[in-house]
Design a protein that fits this description.
The chain is α/β, with parallel strands linked by helices. 38% of the residues lie in helices and 15% in strands. Strands 2-8-7-6-5-3-4 form a 7-stranded mixed sheet, sandwiched between helices. Strands 9-10-13-12 form a 4-stranded antiparallel sheet. The chain has a two-stranded parallel ribbon with strand order 1-11. The structure holds 4'-deoxy-4'-aminopyridoxal-5'-phosphate. 4'-deoxy-4'-aminopyridoxal-5'-phosphate binds next to α4.
Length: 365
C-alpha cells in the first residue's frame, strides 16, 4: 500500500544544524557559528533549563497539571480566559489547530509571498488550497491593508506575519483591524507574532479583546511561540490566542496532550524569566543595528531577531560564508534568490558574521 497522492505537498525544509554541516565539510563543529534559524544566541532561559532537569523523573506519567498551569499563566500574561489559549507543539502546531478548526475541504488560505512556508502546507494538509498576496521588494516588503485586500477573494484564512519572516517588516494594528473588518465574517485573520517580543508594535491580542480603542473581534487569532525570545525552540512550545466566542473548540480539535510535560514545565519557568527575555531582545536590537550599519549590502529594517540582506547571489554567498564558518539562511526557497537572512547573534557572533559576509561580498564582486 502507498500513502495517498502527496504530490501537492512539499516537505518542510528545516535549517541544518552545526553538527550536520561540520560532518559534511569534514570539519570541527567548534569552527562554526549558526545564524540561520532565528534561534536565541543566549540559549534557553536558565530557569527553564533547571525545570527541564527537574521534570526528567516524572516523564513516565502523562502530562496533567502542567498543561493547565501553563495555560493559566499565559492567559494571565495576556489577560484573557484560559479557554482562549490553545497550547500546541510550537507555533507550527498552533497553525495546524487553527486550520483544523476553520478549514473545510476546498477553502482557501491567503498567505504572504515571500512568507513562512508552513501556513500553506498546513492549509493543504487540511484539504484547503493556498493563494498568495505579494509583498514587494520595491516597496520594502511593506505590509498594509490594501496590499492584502487587493488579493483577497473570500479566503477562509488570511495570514499576516508581524514581524514578518524573512523580511522583518510589520503591519500596524489599524491595518489588521481594517483587514478583519473588510473581509467576510467567515474569514479568520491570523496574526503570526512568532517574533513579537522583538518588535516595538503592540500585539493584535488588543483586537481580539477590544482594547486600546479597537472593537472586540471574533475573527482574529494571534500566534506566539516560546522558540525565539524564550530560547526554547527544541522543546516545541507555542500557542494561539483565539476569541472568547470560540468556547470549547480547542477541546474538540487538539491532539491529546498537545504539549509535553517537559515543554509545559519549561514554559512555566521561562514565562517568569523576564530578565532572559529582556537580555535576548536587547541583544537582537543591538545586533540588527550593527548589521544594518556595517554590512556592505542592502539590509532592510527589521523588527525581528534577524535581518534580510541583498547579496546578489544568495546561494553562492551563503555557501562561501558557511565554508568560512558562518551559517546563514539562503532565502532562495522564500522566492528571494538574491537575499540571505542572518539571525541576530551575540556581539562576537554578529561581528564575525558581518566581517565574513563583507569579505565574501568583496570577493564575489
Ligand atoms: N511563524 C514564523 C513566522 C516562523 O518563522 C516560525 C519559525 N520559523 C514559526 C511561526 C514557528 O515556530 P515554532 O513552531 O518553532 O514555534
Amino acid at each position: 500500500m502507498q500513502p495517498r497522492d502527496l504530490s501537492d505537498h512539499v516537505a518542510y525544509e528545516a535549517g541544518r544544524g552545526i553538527e550536520e554541516v561540520a560532518r559534511e565539510l569534514d570539519r570541527d563543529p567548534s569552527e562554526f557559528v549558526k545564524l540561520a534559524s532565528n534561534e536565541n544566541p543566549h540559549g534557553p532561559s536558565p530557569a527553564a533549563a533547571v525545570a527541564i532537569r527537574e521534570t526528567a523523573s516524572s516523564v513516565s506519567s502523562y502530562p496533567k497539571a502542567a498543561h493547565a498551569d501553563l495555560t493559566a499563566a499565559i492567559a494571565e500574561q495576556w489577560d484573557v480566559d484560559d479557554e482562549q489559549v490553545w497550547l500546541a507543539n510550537g507555533g507550527d502546531g498552533a497553525i495546524d489547530y487553527l486550520s483544523r478548526a476553520v478549514l473545510e475541504p476546498g477553502d482557501d488560505a491567503l498567505v504572504p509571498a515571500p512568507g513562512f512556508a508552513y501556513y500553506g502546507m498546513s492549509a493543504r494538509f487540511h484539504h484547503g488550497d493556498v493563494r498568495e498576496y505579494e509583498l514587494s521588494k520595491g516597496n520594502d516588503f511593506a505590509q498594509d491593508a490594501e496590499t492584502v485586500l487587493e488579493s483577497y477573494d473570500g479566503d477562509r484564512m488570511v495570514y499576516l506575519t508581524s514581524p514578518h519572516n524573512p523580511t522583518g517588516s510589520t503591519i500596524p494594528l489599524e491595518d489588521v483591524a481594517e483587514i478583519a473588518e473588510r473581509t467576510d465574517e467567515r474569514t479568520l485573520v491570523v496574526v503570526d507574532e512568532a517574533y513579537g517580543e522583538f518588535a516595538d508594535r503592540d500585539s493584535a491580542v488588543a483586537l481580539i479583546e477590544g482594547r486600546d480603542g479597537f472593537d472586540a473581534r471574533d475573527d482574529v487569532a494571534v500566534l506566539r511561540t516560546f522558540s525565539k525570545a524564550y530560547g526554547l525552540a527544541g522543546i516545541r512550545l507555542g500557542y494561539a490566542i483565539v476569541p472568547e466566542e470560540w468556547g470549547d473548540a480547542y477541546a474538540r480539535v487538539n491532539t491529546p496532550f498537545a504539549a509535553s510535560e517537559l515543554a509545559c514545565r519549561a514554559g512555566l519557568a521561562a514565562i517568569d524569566d523576564d530578565e532572559h527575555v529582556e537580555r535576548t531582545v536587547e541583544t537582537a536590537r543591538e545586533s540588527r543595528t550593527y548589521m544594518r550599519e556595517h554590512l556592505e549590502a542592502r539590509v532592510w529594517e527589521s523588527e525581528g531577531n534577524f535581518v534580510l540582506v541583498d547579496v546578489g547571489d544568495a546561494e553562492r554567498v551563503a555557501e562561501e560564508a558557511q565554508r568560512r564558518g558562518v551559517i546563514v539562511r539562503d532565502c532562495t526557497s522564500f522566492g528571494l534568490p538574491e537575499c540571505i537572512r542572518i539571525t541576530c547573534g551575540t556581539e562576537e557572533e554578529t561581528e564575525r558574521a558581518v566581517e565574513t559576509v563583507n569579505a565574501v561580498l568583496a570577493e564575489v564582486d
